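Listing S7. Sequence submitted for prediction.
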Amino acid sequence: MPNEVTAGELLRRWRNQRGLSQPALSINAEVSSRHLCFVETGRANPSREMIVRLAEELQIPLRHRNAIAILSRSINQNVRCAVTRLFRWS
C-alpha cells in the first residue's frame, strides 16, 4: 500500500512537531543519531525500548505510542492498514 505510514515516519513527524533536530533528540533520548536516522527513514525498525525512549522524550500520547509499536513490527497487513488509516496526518 503506497500511502502506508511507517513507525519511522510517525516518529519523524512527532520530532518535527516538537521542534527537535535528530541530533538533539538522539542526545536527549541517549540513542545513536545514526540509528535514529535509520529508523526515521525505514532502514531499521525500532525496538520496544527505543520506541519507549523516543516516545517519552517526545511526550507522545500513549495511543500514538501503541500505533508506532504496531507499525514497527511485521504484523498482519489488515491491522497495519487499519492503524495507518487511524493515524494518518493531514
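Caption to Listing S7: primary sequence and predicted C-alpha cells for the chain studied. The two ends are 18 Å apart (CA to CA). The chain has a mean pLDDT of 84.
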